[in-house]
Design a protein that fits this description.
GO terms for molecular function: isomerase activity. By secondary structure, this protein is of the alpha+beta class. Helix content is about 20%, strand content about 30%. It folds into three domains: about 50 residues, Structural Genomics Hypothetical 15.5 Kd Protein In mrcA-pckA Intergenic Region, Chain A (Roll); about 80 residues, Pseudouridine synthase I, catalytic domain, N-terminal subdomain (Alpha-Beta Plaits, 2-Layer Sandwich); about 80 residues, Alpha-Beta Plaits (2-Layer Sandwich). It is elongated and about 65 Å long.
Length: about 230
């Protein structure tokens, strides 16, 4: 039908996820249309009932934007089958999902929302939003290591983009990336024979982790400017 809409776009338009996350939910069999398990490529027509995990997906809720200090051991996933998933850990009263990912062993700033449009804006590679990390490694950081890291490293069949890398301690450094390859910093360090011991994200764009305690969140406002809401 001319007025139908792709299922992943429908889910994203309700504000509960990005299109990418919607595709994962569909592939996992968590989405139904009129009681039938959906598949990628399905379209939604007016009057059809879409459910996620058995619950109806309705009108777009009021937008929620959170900055969260993720502890080590928490997984950046909405999958309820993962006992360490970030959603159960936060236990926010409304349905939200993480914007991007942070390794389970890593700590620091991660954003969560119910606004799928914002997710697409932040994760779109061409926007090159900065993400800043503090990293400790298993041996002394040398000038040669810093220089070669900053020039780009061949990992995952690509060369990473040039980035800012600054030594802040004998075995620690600060790195600012504008891309988000899988386990990028750990792979970059591994290429030069270094093992990452701790990795903490302290900034995404202009949003800083600051003094937010581990395991707590604070609300931020669109367009993702810090709000005056208290920490939780």
């Amino acid at each position: 039908m001319a007025d139908s809409i792709s299922l992943n776009k429908f889910l994203s338009s309700t504000g509960i996820c990005s299109r990418r996350e919607a595709d994962r939910w569909i592939e996992a069999g968590r989405v139904t249309i009129n009681g039938r398990v959906a598949i990628k490529g399905n379209r939604v027509e007016p009057g059809q009932i879409v459910r996620l995990d058995g619950k109806p997906v309705g009108a777009r809720p009021a937008p929620v934007y959170l900055a969260f200090h993720k502890p080590a051991g928490v997984t950046s996933t909405t999958d309820p089958k993962d006992p360490d998933n970030i959603i159960d850990f936060i236990n926010y009263p409304e349905r939200i999902f993480p914007i991007g990912r942070l390794d389970k062993a890593s700590t620091g700033l991660i954003l969560l929302t119910n606004d799928g449009d914002v997710v697409n804006e932040i994760l779109r590679a061409e926007n090159a939003h900065e993400k800043e990390y503090i990293v400790t490694v298993d041996r002394p950081v040398t000038p040669d290591f810093l220089q070669r890291m900053s020039r780009g490293v061949p990992i995952l069949q690509v060369r990473t983009k040039p980035c800012t890398v600054e030594r802040i301690g004998r075995r620690s450094f600060r790195i600012i990336l504008t891309q988000g390859l899988n386990r990028q910093i750990r792979r970059m360090c591994g290429y030069f024979g270094y093992t990452v011991l701790t990795l903490k994200r302290v900034r995404i764009m202009h949003i800083e982790l600051g003094t937010l305690p581990v395991g707590k969140y604070r609300r931020i406002d669109f367009p993702l400017a810090p709000a005056d809401a208290p920490d939780r």
